[in-house]
Amino acid sequence: MGRPVRPIVPMAPQEMVERAARAVGRVLRDDMRGITGLSIDDITAMTGTLIALGLVPVLPGEATPDTLIERTRT
Question: What is the top-level taxon of the source organism (predicted)?
Fold first, then answer.
């Protein structure tokens, strides 16, 4: 895997979720233009939020696991 273009800036959980929500809002509002307008930080926030919500990452070339969303009991 290559090195990031620039270091990923750490975000507090609330900031990460809010940034992800705003990015999704732009995509829904602006369609393709919204997608192409996402920043690295927006994509990082969306990725972190999906992982925090239990999405299981599948690396390129790996088989898809039976379970793609891990549910934890609280």
Answer: Bacteria
Considering the domain boundaries, does residue 16 fall inside one? yes
pLDDT in tens, the chain (74 residues): 566 567 777 899 999 999 999 999 999 999 999 999 999 999 999 999 999 999 999 999 999 999 999 987 55
Q: Is residue 3 part of a domain?
A: no
d(CA 23, CA 34): 8
Range of the domain at 51: 10-74
Residue 57 lies in a domain: yes
Round to whole Å and give the CA distance between 53 and 34: 23
Rounded CA-CA distance 71/5 in Å is 33
Count how many domains the chain has.
1
